[in-house]
Specification:
Elements: H1 2-14, E1 19-24, H2 30-42, E2 47-52, H3 58-63, E3 73-78, E4 82-88, H4 91-103, H5 106-115, H6 117-124, H7 126-142, E5 144-145, E6 148-149, E7 153-157, H8 161-177, H9 182-194, E8 199-205, H10 209-225, E9 229-237, H11 249-258, H12 265-293, E10 299-303, H13 311-321
Parallel strand pairs: 1-7, 1-8, 2-4, 2-7, 8-9, 9-10
Antiparallel strand pairs: 3-4, 5-6
């Protein structure tokens, strides 16, 4: 009980939202960050749900499991008896669930699927697809069992920054267009949740020019649409270079001799050029880091994982995102 309370207090202070939307430019590692956040928030006896909505089966690939069905499954344990569950939301299955829930069309809905009507509907109306996906996320976030929340937190591996605003805002547009009925009611409920303090949108970036610019643009867009922006998460970060002058060839030669390595001119020239290129690169990274700091958002830096993102790497990222006591 004490461990659970500590985890609850820590998450309540540092990660106060219940729904954590993780976005980022493609290639920034947003799925790995989302998974690590779900692990970190589950530590200490909590239960989290990790959700994906893009049909990529990224969670299954990351954890080395079979493709996820449209069902909430226990994915893995977290330190301190925590649990991480996973759900891959399928728009077609969500529509069938919606038809059964609001219109009692379970059998009729399945017949529509056989006729291809559901696939046709979600194809000609892309906005409908996003309404269904966000609606399922909202249902999981607010669901209660025996008057208690089913999940302490839900982490959504969301679409990339290029379409995150449109994805999150579609329910508000649908609620505005729909005059009456379950669609309007559900859309209004989802839109209200996404703009409430229960939801935070975290943006993942690398210290590279395009991801940083997309991060800046996405935060401007999200803020203008009324969504709560949480953290900016710098993935695969290297610490800033210490202040000082660049290393000289003479210093390289002394270091190589001390290590018993060759100090011929070709080796020295190659190492010196590489060191200079690294210094230039790190100066650019420091400049981009400063651009992100200027956004005025809480900033988290995650370490570069030389061995790739395996389970040990995910645990390391989780500890960096949600530090223990």
């Amino acid at each position: 009980m004490a461990a659970t309370q500590r985890a609850t207090d820590r998450a309540g202070t540092d990660w106060p939202a219940r729904l954590h939307v993780v976005t980022g430019k493609g290639g920034t590692g947003k799925t790995s960050v989302a998974a690590a956040l779900a692990l970190g928030l589950a530590a200490g006896g909590r239960r989290t749900l990790l959700v994906e909505v893009e049909g990529r089966q990224g969670i299954a690939q990351l954890f080395g499991t079979e493709p996820l069905p449209y069902a909430e499954l226990r994915l893995t344990d977290a330190p301190g008896d925590g649990e991480v569950w996973a759900l891959a939301v399928d728009a077609e299955e969500a529509l069938l669930e919606y038809l059964d829930m609001f219109y009692k069309l379970g059998a009729a809905g399945r017949a529509l699927r056989k006729l291809g009507a559901i696939d046709f509907a979600t194809t000609i109306a892309p906005g409908l697809r996003d309404v269904l996906l966000t609606g399922k996320v909202k249902e999981a976030t607010t669901r209660t069992v025996d008057q208690r929340r089913r999940y302490d937190a839900v982490v959504l591996d969301a679409p990339p920054t290029g379409r995150i605003g449109r994805f999150l805002n579609v329910t508000a547009e649908t609620a505005r267009l729909a005059k009456v009925g379950p669609i309007k009611t559900q859309s209004e409920g989802v839109a209200a949740l996404l703009r409430s303090p229960m939801t935070a949108v975290h943006v993942v970036s690398l210290l590279e020019e395009m991801p940083v610019q997309e991060t800046i643009d996405a935060i401007d867009e999200l803020a203008s649409l009324g969504f709560g922006v949480g953290r900016v998460i710098i993935n695969a970060a290297r610490p800033p270079l210490p202040a000082g002058r660049p290393v000289t060839e003479a210093e390289l030669a002394r270091g190589l001799r001390a290590a018993g390595l060759p100090t011929d001119r070709r080796t020295l020239a190659g190492l010196h050029e590489e060191a200079r290129d690294q210094a230039i690169r790190r100066e650019l990274e420091d400049s981009l880091r400063a651009d992100l700091v200027e956004l005025g958002r809480p900033l988290v830096e995650l370490p570069l994982l030389p061995d790739g993102v395996d389970r040990a790497g995910l645990d390391r990222l989780a500890a960096a995102l949600v530090p223990g006591d």
